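2024-03-11 09:14:02 DEBUG pipeline.ingest accepted 1 chain
2024-03-11 09:14:02 DEBUG pipeline.ingest length=271
2024-03-11 09:14:03 DEBUG pipeline.predict start
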Amino acid sequence: MQNYPVVLQSTQQKLTIMATMEQRTDTNGSVKVNGEALKADRKQAGHTQQSLVVACGSVSLATLRRAEQGHRVRCASLIRIASILGHEVDRYVRADLLNQKTEFAITVEGNWFGLYIEADRGVRPYIVVDETTFHQTGDSVAGGSVNIDPPDHRQEQFEDCRVVHNTVVGLHHIDAWKAPFGIGSFVVKSTRNDDWLEGFSSWYDPDTDRIETSRYILVRKDSSTSERYVAEARKILEQDIFLYELRKLVETGYGVEDAIRMLSASLSGHN
């Protein structure tokens, strides 16, 4: 009888953990992981990180690494890992954090490929690819990027950035340019196990003398799907270039149908 309070307390804690997990099984939910326990169980099961990822199927290597480091990961990913290791998912949930307010739900720490569109005067809009590095402390994010395509090595800095739930918002600027040139803002949302950030970036463009906006996609560089994701991002942005040019033609007075025919003919000529 003297053990009942302990048993009841343990059971209640487990039910609380599982209820919390059930509430967070949507694509936006995430939990803080007991990385030490996860790593120990993975080794005990005879898995390397790579072999466990293969067994899971839907979990990336980057996600597993973040989990074993004790970072937040998607609930669905942790549930899948736990099932492969043969344990209840609550074994890997940091129970001490269940009742704390969630200030941020994703980790963007690391290296990314960033893709967006620029439109210089006199040339067709084109896709820019950069290498971006994010440093995250809590919900605060900073970092920088350098252009690799075109390879002009232009550098930008990210400051005053913050993770809010599954979204990153912030400012970016080019140190070598005098304000307001080179100053912009962005907001991107995380999907695909935090390996894909997508949203929009806006900035003042001296070539067009207007505020320009481009879809902004970042792909986690060390993801096993990075090559495929970058190719997909390029296709999305090529479609945006078509829409951008269509809007420009309509703004100059062309009808939509005429503008579409002109662009289609132009693209056929390039092919």
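2024-03-11 09:14:41 DEBUG pipeline.report The first strand starts at residue 30 and ends at 32.
2024-03-11 09:14:41 DEBUG pipeline.predict end
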